[in-house]
Every structure is written in C-alpha cells, then in structure tokens.
Design goal:
The complex is a heterodimer. By secondary structure, chain A is an all-alpha fold. Chain A has 12 helices and 2 strands; from the N terminus they run ααααααααβαβααα.
Chain lengths: 387, 252
C-alpha cells in the first residue's frame, strides 16, 4: 500500500514542480525576441484542474509533463473547435468529432478539406483519457499529445502545415493571450505545435462519462435501471448468464472495464481472407510491420455506441443489429482472429458454439442502448465555445 | 486548565509529526526477474509447442501475485502486497517474449530460507475495485477486473490448438481464473541472499506444467477449453491455479 500512496505523492510533486517551473520561467529576465509580441504583462496564474469523473470510474491518467489547468483546457477547447487549424480554415477537430455523435461524425469514413474520403471511420473520443495503449484505429499515435499533431498535416484531413498554423495563431487577436494564460509563455515566439497539442489533449481528457446511463445507474445500485431484456443482454455481454440459461456472448473480453474498451488490438472476425496478407486494410499490421497484426484494430469504446453509427473501422455496418449478426456467426476461422470470436453462444461439445438467436441478439442490442449517456453529449463544458 | 490543553495540543502535534516521518530505511534494493517457459525454453507468443501429441500455442499469459514474503525461521518479511506480471509482448514489440523485472525497495539484508507467494489478488484486496486505486498501479487495471465474479482476473492463459494435426490451429483455449476460492498461496524452500552486489532472484513459470495432470499426462484441454463463467463452478480454475507449486522454479 505504501507504494500506491507514494505514486500519488510523486504525481502531486511533479504537478507542483511543473507549475512551479512555469512560474519560474515567466519570471526570467531573458530578453524577448523584438520581432515577437511581448506577452509578459498578461497575468499567468495557472490553476490545476481535477477532472470530474463518476465515483465508480477509474482514476483518470494524466501525464506528468502535461498537467491539467483551467486555462490549458479552455485553450484546448478553442483549438479543438476552431477551423483555424486547417489549410482553408474550414475544418476543425470537431468536424469529425462532434458532441452529438459522442465525438464521432456518424459517417462511414471521414472526408477532409479537399473532399477526399479517408479509409476509416472517426473514433469516439468519449473517455479517451483512459486510452493509454495507442490511438487511432491502428495505434500509430502513442499519446493524445502525439495524436493531436497528426490530422493538421494529413493531406486527406486538414492538409495544412504546423508552421502555417503557428503563424496564424501568433497573429490572432486572442490566441497569444490564451497561450500565455495556459502555459506562461513570454512572447508569441514561444507558441509551438507541441503546446497547441498539449492544450487539445488537456481538453480531450475532460471528455469523461457523466455516469448517468442506465448501465451506470444499475452499477451504482439502482437494480430497476435495466429492464428484463436489457438485463439479459448485460448477462450475455459479460458472460454472466449461465445460471439464467443464457449463453456467453464474450463481448467483455475485448470491450472490458468500465470504459468498455480494453484498448487492445484484435482481428474481430470481419473478413474471410486466405492469407493474413490479403486484408484490404491491414490496420495494426501497418504500424508494427508484423503479418500477424494484419486486420487487427483498436477496440472502440461501447459507451454511447447507439450514438456513433455506422460501425467498425470502415463503417460497414449501419445498425447494431447488423453488428450482432456478424458476431453471432463466430467469425471465419482466420488464424489471427481472437480466440473469443469463435466462442459466441452455448458450447456444442464438438468445439463449435451455437451463436445467438434473435432474442439474444436483440437483448444485447438493448443493453448497448442502455449505455447511452445523453448528459455527457449535452454537457455545456464540452460544447463549441464559439456558438 | 488552559495550559494543560495547550500542552496536550503540543504533545499531539509532536506525535503527529513523529508519525508522519518515513520509516528509517534499513534495507536495500532487491530484484526479481520473471520468465515464462515451455518445458525449459523461453515462451514465445504464437510459437507452436507440443502438449503430448497436441500442437498448441500461447497468446496471452498474465497474472497477479499477492503478499510476496521472504521467510527466515519464524520471521516473515513481506516485500510486496501486490504485483502484476504480463508476459504478453505488446503488438509493437519486436521481441516475442517478455521478461519482467521487479525491484523491491528497502528489503532487509541477510539470508532467507524461502519465499511465499500468493497467486491472484488476496481476498482483502479482491474486495475492492479498480476505481479504488490510483491510475497506473496494478489494481487499477480495468481489463483485469470482471464484474461477473466481482473479482480481479487472477490469471489469464490463452492460446490455440490444432485438434487434428492438420497445421490449422482450429480451436482456442482460455483459462481466466478469478474469485476468492481460487486464490492460492505456495511456499518455496529456497536459499535467498539479499546482499548488495549479489544477483537477484530468478523465477520461472513453466506454462506447460499448468497443462499437465498430477501424473504428468497432458491435461485434456479439448474437453476443458475454458474456465467456467459460472461463479459456483471453479473446477477448471482451481485445477489450473493449484499447479503453481509445480509450475514455478527459482534460482539465484
């Protein structure tokens, strides 16, 4: 237990030191580049911010080198919703991650400023702070700070360059002040893409469930929060139905924990391929270069899944019923399919499984709807600040 | 009366100050290195191994340990309350094996006769939830907590097998053991020297032995492909967890 307490102490210490260093930096007397705007007259009073979360949720991981501050979050929120990041000032992060879609765009694949469609569907950012095993469908970004840098220069997304963005931010009427308040910079010359990404990451870490979905109410003791069908769906989802005559749906093995994503990479049995080299989109394999990772993708959260259609990395399914039909067929037996893809239903004794009948699929879909958290998507603190 | 109150307050403050001080460090760093093996060879994910005549591979192996305690006569020195070992390489890793190393702090120097290790999360901690622990600590890992048992998943051992020897790994096995009844503690007689500049302890888990019966015949994994999700049916989980005694070897 001593080790656990020490971890908290270390994190608090790092937060204090980091904020302290920021204060020390703004007191330095080094001359400011005369070609840049001096911001040192603007007050810098960073206030640390504790991310609100439901009591039954895990503690939110925050990296020691990007502590949460009130002004950092506000800057990040503006940058997230501001099309200033794109080359033609038409597209922001929120263009593909809208609150109403639980921070997706509800399109099969997203389209960038040049009208070019991408390959993959935008992922929900709900509870993204808990994603600590890579971001994007293929895990090519290691952190939220790393992820936030990439869409700006992606030619089929914002198609811009960071030097262009930084120049626009420096000349902007209000952003230099926001950067000063968030990070204590002394002049516009200290605005960097890394600080912009840190601010966006801070805002994204606040996108945490409200804890008011039916499922959350059930978890917190309201046994009537789920109706009978939703409850049956929950039992099958979490493989708890044996005593009730219900089969295992094996969902939670991949969609585990309270955030309902294990943050791992799986081949979830979507495609029948003769060889692992035959996947149209190699997913995780593109990043690792390993054949066995071809066709594997990061497990998305199922929280607010009813608001995030269409489904899968390429948006191939428009409804959750279609998703359940796919899984109920127990995959194709491709060698890197996850073990649990082939185990949905009752064991038949010959190594195969029964799949799920119509009621069982319907009950699971109803349970998935019970994960809907409208309080989260309507939270005024995470809406577009420019409206 | 007032001066006694002031005196009492000063005394209490002094006691509080004294109790807040860190304990005097009398020990040293002591490390343990853990390997997963199959019949003496370091385990590689996805590599095919023979279990009797049945080809099998392994895809995930991870476990919790509780109350790791060094033993010396009647003296017991607990060096850790809970630890987590994951032998599954991340998908981005180039290595096919993982060799976790844990450095235990402030371990009293000297010679010990043995070590006791609890496999799983001991009941006192298993009654808690991941949200009770700080992010980044072993018991905060959401993926290894199962609401169905209201328990941490003490051990995961997953893999695939080729039931008809046609080079197609056509079935999976998944042993996910959890809940208080399957928690196990074992004591190993082992001379352990905790000294500066002395090598640490090497502990090996031979996963093959999880899949051998007491008479060393292969466990029938075709008939027992998974641990039951029925909380009252812990038969397979107890069989697997009960084998840690023979699974673990150590040397220094």
């Amino acid at each position: 237990m001593k080790i656990l307490v020490s971890t908290v102490q270390i994190r608090l210490f790092l937060l204090v030191v980091t904020l302290g260093l920021g204060l020390a930096q703004c007191d330095k007397n080094d001359p400011v580049d005369p070609t840049e705007t001096d911001l040192s007259g603007i007050p810098y009073n960073p206030q640390s911010y504790a991310i609100p979360k439901p009591a039954h949720f895990p503690q939110v991981p925050v990296p020691a080198d990007n502590p949460m501050t009130v002004d950092g979050i506000q800057l990040g929120r503006r940058l997230f919703y501001d099309p200033i990041l794109s080359a033609d000032s038409t597209m922001s992060c929120a263009s593909c991650h809208l609150p109403v879609g639980s921070f997706t765009d509800n399109k099969a694949v997203s389209t960038g400023i040049d009208g070019i469609a991408g390959r993959r569907s935008s992922m929900s950012l709900m509870n993204i702070a808990y994603a600590t095993n890579g971001l994007f469908w293929d895990g090519r970004a290691s952190s939220l700070e790393d992820q936030a840098l990439k869409p700006v220069e992606d030619p089929i997304e914002m198609h811009n360059t960071w030097p262009n963005v930084i120049e626009k931010l420096k000349k902007h009427a209000t952003y230099p002040t926001y950067f000063r308040k968030a990070f204590g910079i002394r002049s516009t010359g200290e605005i960097t893409k890394e600080l912009a990404a840190q601010a966006i990451a801070q805002f994204e870490r606040t996108l945490i469930s409200s804890g008011t979905s039916k499922f959350d109410r059930f978890l917190q003791g309201d046994v009537d929060a789920l109706d009978d069908e939703e409850f049956d769906g929950k039992l099958m989802f979490f493989d708890e139905g044996a005593s009730y005559g219900l089969p295992d749906a094996q969902c939670f093995h991949c969609h585990g924990g309270l955030t309902l994503t294990g943050n791992q990479y799986f081949n979830n049995g979507l495609d029948s391929v003769a060889s692992l080299d035959d996947f149209v989109d190699k997913g995780r394999g593109e990043v690792t270069g390993k054949q066995k990772n071809n066709g594997q993708f990061r497990t998305p959260t199922l929280r607010n899944i009813a608001l995030t259609a269409p489904y899968m990395h390429d948006g191939r399914f428009t409804t959750l019923d279609q998703v359940m039909l796919q899984y109920a067929d127990n995959g194709f037996g491709v060698e890197n399919e996850d073990i649990f893809i082939g185990q949905m239903g009752f064991p038949l004794g010959n190594g195969s499984y029964s799949g799920l009948n119509a009621y069982q699929r319907s009950a699971i879909v109803k349970f998935l709807h019970a994960l809907t958290d409208t309080t989260f998507v309507q939270n005024p603190d995470i809406q577009n600040p420019f409206k | 009366m007032k001066k006694y109150q002031i005196l009492a307050a000063l005394l209490l403050s002094g006691l509080a100050f004294y109790s807040c001080k860190d304990p005097v460090e009398t020990g040293i760093d002591f490390d343990m290195t853990f390997t997963a093996n199959f019949d003496g060879q370091q385990l590689e994910v996805d590599k095919i191994y023979p279990l009797g005549t049945l080809p099998i591979n392994f895809q995930r192996f991870r476990l919790y340990m509780s109350d790791i305690t060094l033993l010396r006569g009647t003296e017991e020195i607990r060096i850790s309350e809970v630890e987590y070992l994951d032998f599954t390489p991340s998908s981005s890793a180039t290595n096919l094996s993982v060799t976790p190393k844990i450095v235990f702090k402030n371990v009293p120097e000297g010679s010990y006769d043995g070590i006791r290790i609890g496999y799983g999360v001991k009941p006192e901690l298993n009654a808690k939830r991941p949200s009770d622990f700080p992010a980044g600590t072993p018991l905060a890992i959401e993926d290894d907590y199962w609401l169905g048992w209201k328990s941490y998943i003490f051990m995961v051992l997953d893999g695939r097998g080729d039931s008809d020897n046609d080079s197609n790994m056509d079935f999976g096995f998944s042993y996910h053991c959890g809940s208080d009844p399957v928690y196990r503690e074992f004591t190993y007689q082992q001379h352990i020297h905790v000294e500066k500049d002395h090598p640490g302890l090497q502990i090996a888990f031979d996963v093959r032995r999880f899949l051998l019966n007491d008479d060393n015949s292969p466990y029938d994994i075709l008939a027992n492909r998974a641990t039951s999700n029925e909380v009252s049916d812990t038969r397979v989980a107890e069989e697997i967890m009960g084998r840690f005694d023979s699974v673990v070897t150590m040397k220094q």
